[in-house]
Amino acid sequence: MIPELGHFALILALVLSLVQAVVPLVGAQRNSMALMAVGRPAAQGQFFFIVFSYVCLTWAFVTSDFSVQLAATNSHSETPIMYKITGVWGNHEGSLLLWAMSLSLWTVAVTVFSRHLPDAFLARVLGVLGLVSAGFISFTLVTSNPFERLLPAVADGRDLNPLLQDPGMIIHPPLLYMGYVGFSVAFAFAIAALMSGRLDAAWARWSRPWTTIAWVFLTAGIAVGSGWAYYELGWGGWWFWDPVENASFMPWLLGTALMHSLAVTEKRGAFRSWTVLLAIGAFSLSLLGTFLVRSGVITSVHAFATDPKRGLYILALLVIVIGASLLLYAMRANKLMGGGSFALVSRETSLLANNVLLTVASASVLLGTLYPLFLDALNLGKISVGPPYFEAVFVPLMTPVVVLMMFGPFLRWKDDDLAAAVRKVAPAFIASVLIGFGTAWAVDHVTWRTVLGLSLAAWVVLASIQLLAGRLKERAGASAGSRLRSITASWWGMWLAHLGIGVFIIGVTMVGSLDQSLDVKMKEGQRAELAGYSFVFRGAVDADGPNYDAARGNIELSRDGRVLDTLTPEKRVYRAQGMPMTEASLDIGVFRDVYVSLGEQLEDGAWIVSLYYKPFISWIWMGCVLMGLGGIFAAADRRYRRLAAREAAGAGQRVAASA
Amino acid sequence: MKARSKRLMLVGGGVVLLFAAVALVLSAFQQNLVFFHTPTEVAEGKAPTGKTFRVGGMVEEGSIKREADGVTVRFAITDTAKIIPVTYKGTLPDLFKEGKGAVVQGKLENGVFQATEVLAKHDENYMPPEAAHAVEQAQKAATTLSQ
Predict the structure, then answer these.
(1) Are B54 and B20 contained in the same domain?
(2) A235 touches chain B (CB under 8 A)
(3) What is the DSSP letter of A112?
(4) What band does B21 get if pLDDT is binned at 50, 70 and 90?
(5) Are residues B28 and B38 in the same domain?
């Protein structure tokens, strides 16, 4: 009964999404307040029914109702309650429902925080979001009904893929989806602006906080996913250039470009065309990511689905979205010309250069991800494009991005003197190259990659310090406290996020240059050495969990005769699917992780043990945390709320005047 | 500088930058493609020597042998028609088993495939598409021969 209620609620949500799509758009066209006003309650009602539907599905998982197909294939009576709840999205149908729910949540957020928007504009935004929502809910209902019954019901379920039974999987998909789907808001704002022909600074300002928050979610989602891969896949890698990772990284790159382009459009009125295209592009790549992951076209951990019908449906959706928005763009492109002019040497130019580089980087990931699929589809042979390609492309593309990222803020808007600006940053630049060489020499690893990475990181840190110092000097007379307070939240956001890139580069460079690993056969009592650490294998014992059998190794980690930690890596076999799993054990530190995982047990009772030394790896995620914090600061700037309040007041006066 | 020549320089610079970036991407692409070959193609000498490529198929029953150090493994990959011997040093994926699909990446040296990477399936139902493709090709060839 409850699954049928959930199914019914989802159908109602579809009906409401169609209402939300059609009525306000017609209203905005005819300038009818009554029709436009339908958008808000329709969006909120749709949210209610999707959440209701989602709760019904979760109920089937939690109560182990194995007459529901999805629960029977993705849950088990012995699965821990947490993984019963998260198992709802550990599969194709459930994750689509999560997608639709995230979109609905974003839409409701727009209805709540948009009192200051002109009615026609809001109506168009809600209409576009309604169209996207209708596309996804109908896709779910038509091709992937999560409430499908399984009759007769099975005695017990097949359990959730053990790789997904992990705390990282509890938060990774919701964060990632909030990020992906969040770009639909930036997209809807851009399309609404195109429809109304009103592409000005106000549009960019309304759009900015939404884009930044979506970007923060996406950053966090990618970082959590990378952390999960690091400790769960059992061999200490943190990024694999796997097509599914690329699927989330492409919108991230374009979203980063979009955030910066929006800043220029708001402040200077320039790049309007470019900003609109980036908004369309970022959302299209989010859809493409969904297509890649959900259609099962790629060889990857995440490819649960293998039904081509579904792939075609999303592909059609993708073609419609991209086609219709580009058509609209072409029709309105003549209104996008002009805007603030700027000289060759200006902050605009540096932002534009980085925008182009980020877009090229995104395109290079797209090429590397799609080309093998194309060849395969056309029967031209099977190839794979691995990490060496992406590394060969990313290092030269990102090096100028990082250099410009810290140079740009020293330039003035509109026009600046190149020689003077270069003189300003030259000491920091030269110092960072020296620091790069010196540090590489100190850690005895002078390769061009290490020197480059460390120099770039030093450049980011030194330039950040100089930037802050310069900013504080601006009001020389004031007290330190008031000088700090005079800096806006959005400036701090920029500063923190850029600094985060520096911290991230330190992590990537150090772990890429200096990590060490050893695969070794160990019997009880045997010792192995790696990177100055000593590992003594104290044997393995049985350690069964609720839904798996396991052997737990016991390895004593010491350095210079001092015991640091006891590591307990596990080899698990999940009972329902008979699937083996490696559970690594880590000793985490600020400057290094020591990482141990169990391989197989050999006939003579010895184990294959993998030992890893990972210097500075946690800096990768610390860098991501700083970037995310930067985004939160930028979105929380008081300016947005103040202007919103003023616009709301202005709108009120206009209504009063017309009445 | 006139506004017009400024714009020209900006556009020109952008185009040069774009071309340089595209050239970089394409050359990196050319150099780092990894081709896939079936065991039959490798046995027929169609695979490159001294270059990294991938081979996929089933792990031959009874072929997994460990060296005394415990971490060097020898096994064979087959598409049911031909068998390619493989050596690999390192930890094998959890789902690497005899009679199951696997893909190996590495180089061919003196008729033995020196693998640097071993990929197995990710869950019960999943077979690496490349491995499935190799077996399918071999069986198709076998049926054409028998006709």
Answers:
(1) no
(2) yes
(3) H
(4) confident
(5) no
Q: Which residue of A has its CA nearest to B127?
A: A299
Choosing among B53, B91, B117, B126, which should be mutated to test the A contact, i.e. which has the most A CBs within 10 A? B91
Q: What residues contact residue A445 under an 8 Å CB cut-off, 6+ apart?
A: A513, A514
* Contact call for A610 and B54, based on CB within 8 A: no
What is the spatial distance between Cα A418 and Cα A344, in angstroms, rounded to a whole number?
9
Q: How many CB atoms lie within 10 A of CB A378?
A: 8
Q: Are A251 and A285 in contact (CB under 8 A)?
A: yes
> In this structure, are B1 and B63 located in the same domain?
no
Please report residues of B whose CB lies closer than 8 A to that of A396: 24
Which pLDDT belongs to residue A495? 97
Give the pLDDT confidence of A204-255 residue by residue, as tens digits: 999 999 999 999 999 999 999 999 989 888 778 899 898 888 999 999 999 9
Domains in chain B: how many in total?
Answer: 2
Mean pLDDT of A37-47: 96
Same domain, B21 and B44: no
Do both B28 and B78 map to the same domain? Answer: no
Same domain assignment for residues B89 and B140: yes
CATH of the domain at B92: 2.40.50.140
Supply B28's token pair.
């990196």
The more confidently predicted of residues A164 and A517 is: A517
Is B56 in the same domain as B69?
yes
A447 touching chain B per CB within 8 A = no
> Nearest CA to CA, how far is B146 from chain A (Å)?
25
Answer yes or no: is pLDDT of A647 > 80. no
Is B103 found in the same domain as B55?
yes
Residue B146: band (very low, low, confident or very high) from pLDDT cuts 50, 70, 90: low
| Mean pLDDT value of segment A103-124 | 93
Mutation target among B30, B42, B87, B122 for the A interface, most CBs of A within 10 A: B122
Chain A residues whose CB is inside 8 A of the B14 CB are 352, 356
What is the average pLDDT across A161-181? 88
Cα–Cα distance, A186 to A216 (Å, whole number) = 14
Nearest to A95 by CA among A297, A303, A317, A307: A303
* CB pair distance less than 8 Å for A360 and B18: yes
Q: Tokens 């985060």, residue? A: A500
- Give the minimum alpha-carbon distance from B39 to chain A in angstroms, rounded to a whole number: 14
Q: What mean pLDDT comes out for the span B52-70?
A: 88
Query: Which residues in chain A have Cβ-Cβ distances shorter than 8 Å to B69?
Result: 521
Question: Which residues of chain A make contact with B128, given a CB cutoff of 8 A?
Answer: 299
- Contact state of B28 with A608 under an 8 Å Cβ cutoff: no
Alpha-carbon distance of A91 to A105, in angstroms, equals 21
Q: Is B2 exposed, middle or buried (0-12, 13-18, 19+ CB in 10 A)?
A: exposed
Pairing of strands A607-615, A533-542: unpaired
pLDDT over 90, % of chain B: 21
Return d(Cα B77, Cα B83) in angstroms, integer.
6
- A447, A477, A285, A290: which is closest to A366 by C-alpha? A285
Average pLDDT, chain B: 82
Task: Judge: A299–B91 Cβ closer than 8 Å, yes or no.
Answer: no
Q: Which DSSP state fits A149?
A: B
Q: Among residues A39, A62, A74, A56, which one has the least CA distance to residue A1?
A: A56
A360 vs B: CB within 8 A: yes
Q: If residue A192 lies in a helix (H) or strand (E), which one and from where to where?
A: helix A167-196
- B30: CB partners within 8 A, 6+ apart: none
Q: Which domain holds residue B69?
A: 34-146
Q: For A263-286, what is the HEC assignment? A: HHHHHHCCCHHHHHHHHHHHHHHH
Interface check for A368 against chain B (CB to CB < 8 A): the answer is: yes
